[in-house]
């Protein structure tokens, strides 16, 4: 303790407000505010000077703590009209003050300190708790008030909102996500007919903007549990997705109405179900998921094929690992890698000598079209080679996502 009194004695060579005195000993005891702590330190040191009558004379903060109420007020005003359940306060303090504070710690030998930013965050946070009737939340706040103490400015860092659902896609001419024109990057040019996009619409366009409108947000992002090809339908139990809305003004959404609006406006093209609130952790798990998928694929052989050959296909592929080099159709935009996947099951649903329909369950990430035609030998083994007749894929549907039954 005597050492602490020495530190206090050295510190009080300068004019200090109780906040800035107390902060030198912030980690000594809990349960007190710094100005209370400063007052106790001061009174326990015989002959110590009173705090400056005008705290703008405080050597460290130059009276910044006089402005707490003002900061809380402009912060509360900045968030008017926004729905949020909790928040956190962050402050920006000018560099000169921070450097002065740190030099001062060294000068007086204080080691149990707290930074002025931490105290400002906490004190503004407390005032806001009263004004807003909401609690500070440290780990996952709906919003962060960034208080610029030098220019009396508030920046609101609003946490995005996440909505989960499953979609079915009945079109063979539509991508999952909005696809900007490569030429003009969305501005509009001859290549994209001035639309700025490669496709008129997408699953994202049929879901995101509706959710965004309800949340009064500014931008929408689409996270799918993988994606099907543009020309593949997504049927069965549907594919899980999460729409992320940036800077939402509303966080309580009428989910049944949203689901209904999406299904009415996307009638016959896209269908969603199971719409509910989600979170960032679920986005991660959706993106990292490696559930198997089930496909229905219709192929046509170049010439008629003996029935027995299809049994060879089943025998050669069911439960077997396959090797796939990055398909020719995507190798221009993806690394040329070899991947190993397993065909978990395969059966023939129908066959007329020329056209066959297979139902294939395979590991996540298997290239099904290439498994059929072989991609010039880049997928091994493949249906065309086993049969001994080249084939083309006429239709591909995803009919089941393995994250749940159905
Ligand atoms: Zn001060
Ligand atoms: Zn364009």
Features of this protein?
4-stranded mixed β-sheet; 10-stranded mixed β-sheet; THUMP fold; binds zinc ion; Alpha-Beta Plaits; 14 strands; alpha+beta; 12 helices
| End-to-end C-alpha gap | 70 Å
CATH topology of the largest domain: THUMP fold
Per CATH, the class of the largest domain reads Alpha Beta
Please give the domain count: 3
Radius of gyration: 32 Å
Helix content: 25-40%
Count, helices: 12
Structural classification: alpha+beta
Strand content bin: 25-35%
Describe the fold and architecture.
With 406 residues, the protein is an alpha+beta fold. It contains twelve helices and 14 strands. The chain folds into three domains: 2-158, THUMP superfamily (THUMP fold); 161-288, Alpha-Beta Plaits (2-Layer Sandwich); 293-401, 2-Layer Sandwich (Alpha-Beta Plaits), CATH 3.30.70. The strands form two sheets. Strands 5, 6, 7, 8, 9, 10, 11, 12, 13 and 14 form a ten-stranded mixed sheet that branches. A four-stranded mixed sheet has the order 2-1-3-4. Strand 6 and strand 7 (232-246) form a beta hairpin. The radius of gyration is 32 Å and the shape is elongated. The mean pLDDT is 95. It binds zinc ion (ZN) (2 copies). One zinc ion binds at residues 17, 19-20, 58, 60-61.
């Amino acid at each position: 303790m005597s050492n602490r009194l020495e530190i206090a004695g050295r510190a009080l060579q300068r004019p200090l407000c109780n906040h800035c005195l107390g902060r030198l000993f912030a980690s000594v005891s809990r349960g007190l505010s710094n100005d209370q702590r400063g007052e106790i330190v001061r009174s326990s040191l015989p002959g110590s000077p009173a705090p400056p009558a005008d705290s703008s004379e405080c050597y460290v903060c130059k009276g910044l703590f006089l402005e707490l109420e003002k900061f809380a007020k402009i912060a509360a005003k900045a968030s008017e009209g926004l729905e949020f359940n909790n928040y956190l306060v962050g402050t920006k303090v000018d560099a000169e003050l921070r450097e002065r504070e740190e030099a001062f710690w060294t000068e007086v030998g204080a080691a149990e300190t707290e930074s002025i930013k931490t105290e400002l965050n906490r004190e503004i946070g407390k005032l806001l708790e009263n004004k807003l009737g909401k609690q500070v939340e440290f780990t996952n706040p709906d919003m962060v008030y960034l208080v610029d103490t030098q220019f009396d400015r508030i920046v609101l860092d609003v946490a995005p909102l996440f909505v989960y659902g499953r979609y079915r896609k009945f079109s063979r001419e539509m991508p999952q996500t909005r696809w900007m024109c490569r030429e003009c990057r969305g501005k509009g040019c001859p290549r994209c007919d001035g639309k700025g996009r490669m496709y008129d619409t997408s699953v994202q366009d049929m879901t995101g903007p509706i959710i965004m409108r309800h949340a009064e947000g500014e931008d929408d992002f689409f996270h799918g549990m993988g994606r099907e090809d543009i020309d593949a339908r997504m049927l069965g139990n549907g594919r899980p997705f999460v729409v992320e809305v940036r800077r939402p003004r509303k966080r309580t959404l009428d989910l049944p109405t949203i689901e209904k609006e999406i299904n009415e406006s996307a009638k016959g093209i896209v269908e969603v179900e199971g719409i509910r609130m989600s979170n960032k952790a679920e986005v991660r798990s959706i993106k990292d998921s490696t559930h198997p998928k089930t496909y229905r694929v219709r192929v046509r052989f170049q010439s008629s094929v003996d029935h027995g050959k299809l049994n060879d296909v089943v025998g050669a592929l069911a439960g077997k690992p396959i090797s796939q080099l990055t398909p020719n159709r995507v190798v221009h935009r993806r690394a040329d890698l070899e991947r190993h996947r397993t065909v978990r099951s395969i059966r023939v649903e129908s066959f007329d000598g020329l056209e066959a329909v297979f139902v294939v369950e395979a590991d996540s990430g298997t290239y099904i079209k290439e498994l059929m035609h072989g991609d010039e030998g880049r997928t091994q083994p493949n249906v065309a080679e086993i049969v001994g007749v080249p084939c083309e894929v006429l239709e591909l549907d995803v009919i089941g996502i393995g994250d749940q039954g159905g």
